[in-house]
Amino acid sequence: MTTPLLEQPTRPESRTTAFTTWWRMVWVIVELELRQRLRTTRWKAILATSFAVVSLVVLGSLYLSVVAFGGTYRGWSSALYEILVGFLLFLGIIVAPTLAATTINGDRKDATLAVVQATSITNSQLALGKLIGSWLASLAFVGVAAPYVIWAIVESPNGVAHGLAGATVLIVLFACYAGIGLGFSAMTTRPAGSAVLTQASVLFLILGLPIVFGLLFPATTQTHTVIRPVTTFVDNPPQPPTSTCREVREDHEFHHHEHIWWLLAPNPFFIVADAAAPQRDPLDREAASSVATEISQVFSAVRAGPYIGSRYCSDTTYTYPAVDPADYSVRETAHETSKVGDSWYFGLAFYFALGGLGFWVARRRLRVPAGKLARGVRIA
Fold first, then answer.
1. In whole angstroms, how far apart are CA 280 and each of 2, 277, 284, 340?
2. Gap between the Cα atoms of 228 and 29, Å rounded
3. pLDDT tens per residue across span 61-78
């Protein structure tokens, strides 16, 4: 009597194979997202129009600066990076959240989401695939402008490294915007409603928070007692007038905007400009300047707060019949023009949190079985 051979136990799947398989499923969703958009001729027309608009902005600004207003190419090229990156950021703020805001409820409306959920794919893989797909679709607008971006980085007075840093932060912001839109797409049933909510949230971060900063600015006023020099001129004809200086204590009001500077941190234009601006000596007036450095300087001054140090008679420059207030103190000038440090990562971390929250919401809403559904949600 022959005994049957025992079945050999299946070898457990290695971690590398499991990791590769997991990501393969994600990229299937990414490919479906991209194919669905590239299949339409409207998408191709949008990319062609975007390239034409970017070309018009770059070449039009060159014509106006050099030909119409008699400027130099060097003066225009030094500002090309800020012009181009600012325009791409404005375009991405409109496009990136909107693309992701319809990716889940749009598939529900077309009855294609349930077909995908019926496969072995997990909710995390599905949410991540849709997030990456929406992000890559929004980066297409940066891709069509890549020749101009390279040109701008090479010509930027801030250097290639800082130009690449600003472009990298710009790309990461698009991913965060896609995460925000994905969360609203999972929470609402109508694509139009999720698109409106996403754009409203993005506009609040760009315009609403600076308005709140302005409204709270008067509330940051505090009174401090400081020492100030008081100069008195005495006539001494026929000799020039003589001056005497004495130091007195006075009460002055200062705006402590360093307490509310974080309201400006989520502004994407401040974030990108601060990332692209290099550190420089605040007292070096011959250092190269740009729009990015000026925006970064303002951002740093708001974060640093006012200079409350005292002024002394030794800090005063006398130019009869007045005192020149610009030369009061080198310390005060250094405080007002120095850079506290890079602040862009605070705003970027805030967007990471919002984008991660949107991804978490989408992941939970894509669980199978879904449980209780909102009214009007179709399954298949």
1. 86, 9, 8, 11
2. 68
3. 888 888 888 888 888 888
